[in-house]
Amino acid sequence: MKTVIIKYNAGNVQSVMYALERLGVSYIYTDEESEIRSADRVIFPGVGEASTAMAYLKEKKLDLLIPELKQPFFGTCIGMQLMCKHSEENDTKCMGIFDVDVRRFSAIPGIKVPHMGWNNISNYGSELTQGLPDNAYVYFVHSYAAPICEYTVASCDYIVPFSAMLKKDNFHAAQFHCEISGGVGQQIMENFLKN
Amino acid sequence: MLTKRIIPCLDVKDGRTVKGVNFVNLRDAGDAVALGAMYAEHGADELVYLDITATVDGRSTFIDLVRKVAHTINIPFTVGGGISTKEDVSALLHAGADKVSINSAAVRNPGLIDELAREFGSQCIVVAIDTRFIETPLGREHIVHTHGGRQATELRTIAWAKEVEQRGAGELLLTSMDTDGTKDGFALELTSIVSSAANIPVIASGGAGNMDHFYDVFTNGKADAGLAASIFHFNEMTIPDLKQYLTDKGLPMRLTH
Prior knowledge:
The structure holds 2 protein chains of 2 kinds. Helices cover 25% and strands 29% of the residues of chain A. Chain A is an alpha/beta fold. Chain A has one domain: Class I glutamine amidotransferase (GATase) domain (Rossmann fold, 3-Layer(aba) Sandwich), CATH 3.40.50.880. In chain A, the strands form 3 sheets. In chain A, strands 2-1-3-4-13-12-11 form a 7-stranded mixed beta sheet. In chain A, strands 6-5-7-10 form a 4-stranded mixed beta sheet, covered by helices on one side. Chain A has a two-stranded antiparallel ribbon with strand order 8-9. In chain A, a hairpin with a 4-residue loop joins strand 5 and strand 6. Chain B is an alpha/beta fold. Chain B has a single domain, classed as TIM Barrel, CATH 3.20.20. Chain B is 37% helix and 25% strand. Chain B has 10 helices and 11 strands. An 8-stranded parallel barrel of chain B has the order 1-3-4-5-6-9-10-11, surrounded by 7 helices. In chain B, a hairpin with a 2-residue loop joins strand 1 and strand 2. The radius of gyration of chain B is 17 Å and the shape is globular. About 2% of the residues of chain B have low confidence. At the A-B interface, helix 1, strand 8, strand 9 and helix 6 of A face helix 3 of B.
């Protein structure tokens, strides 16, 4: 089994690598098309800002490659947002795998943006959420989110309800950070890796 | 619902935990990785590792430790202590820290906050503010301190909190030097004012002595997270008991047991 983590300029992916190592899974960290195409599974993590991340993906033509992939694919945090159609963050056109627009949380008095910390997810509908307790807690850090849509397979509530996880065919995505979400995050990663 | 967070803080010197940690189940209480893993297992929501080493050798030992912690635990952790450049931050994040906390360096050079937020993203930049309520020519005021709270600056705490938010900090770690070590409770009024003034999460620190102190700081103090060291290290309260207590009082907590 060949697992690839896509290399791009969106932040620090060290914790994702460590999480895979804890699960005993070896991986290749690369931005090369042939390596990505030949992978059995692809992980697309990321922390960062949408427009600079998209610019890098375009430069490497990864924005065209990724939507064509047929193997199980898992994007997290900014990775998930880049898989949507558009992000309000610096008015960025994204890859459009999920036909939904990412919007900024509008702060209301007493409620802070970014949404940072542990929040519970519900309304599960994907093989990645199998075996999770109801209302499992996972760790979020983000200021932008995708609304609930036809691809939502786990939802969360902060100021408004939003998509915690999305799924379409072989494409899976999570807004939260599985790699630092305790046992729940580990379960989701294991579910993806055996899929 | 977004939960309130409980954060144990571990002081580290030359790669080992200090402050007479007293745990029967740990073979080596100085083992900062094992201690962090135990807290994670007990349901800590995040960890803070503070490097109190002053030497260059100690710094590289600390980076090794950060790497081991990141390898071992599966919850977020913040590292702080003596961070003053972009290179320091880069080394710690690459070693696997989720966030870094800067303190004196931000006071010396506020532009560092902007620079770090641009380079690494606000989500991983925590600004630590040590504050003391002191006599000034204009009366008693909350004033930012450096050097472990020994040296007063000219910065007013509340204005500084707003400024660091504007500059791109993602979170504040507010330590009241007046309550720190007293076990009489957190500085509620100040925490509440800072938390309302800055639209980013505030971690309250200094003064935790019992479970009600946490309840108070999450309600009256409007804190997003509560940090403590000795009460956890000396096993005066356990994290599962604390989280159960706060849950029973109606606060949103992440229960893992």
